[in-house]
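Sequence, please.
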């Protein structure tokens, strides 16, 4: 290693060098599994750039580094579950942090300027590259997810106070939820069919809406078949709903570069607000009509 390196500079270069060889292998593996020829070519080219970056820093440090296998497994697994767009956008956020780190030392090492130029180009390529079906139908997923969260949390809150029987609440909620999911999917199909010139296939749009709705229904209903106390089951169902809102909004905010905090708080406030009003309505119905099961 070049003499005169401070301990801090040496540590930064070591970190960046290991990061570059790790990202080289991540992009290489993503390219191997990518079916779209254009996406595959771009990912392969970026993988090559990351290897060049590694070798540039290697000349400065005189060291060899092995890639972070856990990080490679994490991102390749994430791509299988959440898709290519989400995965590379998450990696891109890490690259932005790396760019700020490179900026601190680029005056000392002019070679780093080449790496910064490549990283900036990567951002533009990655932003224009992706064309995933699931993102094209994200509006349909939002429709199913949001409708299920708002309607079912409200219904469960109302049923919980009015009926106070977890098995009965779960059964009624399940029937109500599945019927609503089929209705919502049919409405989405007819809406896209009527649109005619739209880019989305009506059947696929309906499938995404129905699947998002039904999955949310099962997750919200599940506590009523696990816990015997209706208040505990309702609390767990509401917490589950908040977790669903958190995970979904994190995904969409990363994949589409949207404001996570605003979207999460807005969706959570609507769902909790409807649940609260429905709980009060359930209490009123129980008192007025004398429901006692």
């Amino acid at each position: 290693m070049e003499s005169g390196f401070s301990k801090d500079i040496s540590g930064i270069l070591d970190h960046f060098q290991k990061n570059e060889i790790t990202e080289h292998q991540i992009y290489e593996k993503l390219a191997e599994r990518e079916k779209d020829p254009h996406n595959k070519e771009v990912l392969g080219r970026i993988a090559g750039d990351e290897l060049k970056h590694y070798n540039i820093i290697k000349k400065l440090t005189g060291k060899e580094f092995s890639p972070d296998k856990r990080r490679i497994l994490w991102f390749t697994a994430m791509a299988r579950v959440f898709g290519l767009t989400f995965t590379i956008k998450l990696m891109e956020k890490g690259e932005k942090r790396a760019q700020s780190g490179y900026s601190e030392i680029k005056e000392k090492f002019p070679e780093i300027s080449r790496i910064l130029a490549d990283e900036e180009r990567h951002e533009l390529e990655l932003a224009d590259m992706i064309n995933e079906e699931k993102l094209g139908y994200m509006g349909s997923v939002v429709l199913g997810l949001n409708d299920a969260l708002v309607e079912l949390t409200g219904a469960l809150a109302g049923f919980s106070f009015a009926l106070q029987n977890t098995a009965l609440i779960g059964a009624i909620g399940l029937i109500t939820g599945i019927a609503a999911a089929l209705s919502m999917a049919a409405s989405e199909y007819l809406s896209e069919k009527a649109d005619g010139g739209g880019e989305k296939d009506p059947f696929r749009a309906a499938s995404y809406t129905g699947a998002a709705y039904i999955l949310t229904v099962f997750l919200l209903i599940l506590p009523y078949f696990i816990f015997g106390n209706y208040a505990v089951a309702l609390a767990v169902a509401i917490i589950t709903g908040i977790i669903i809102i958190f995970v979904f909004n994190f995904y969409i905010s990363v994949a589409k570069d949207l404001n996570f905090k605003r979207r999460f708080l807005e969706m959570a406030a609507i769902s909790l607000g409807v649940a609260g009003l429905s709980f009060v309505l359930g209490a009123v119905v129980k008192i007025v009509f004398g429901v006692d099961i």
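The mean pLDDT is 80.
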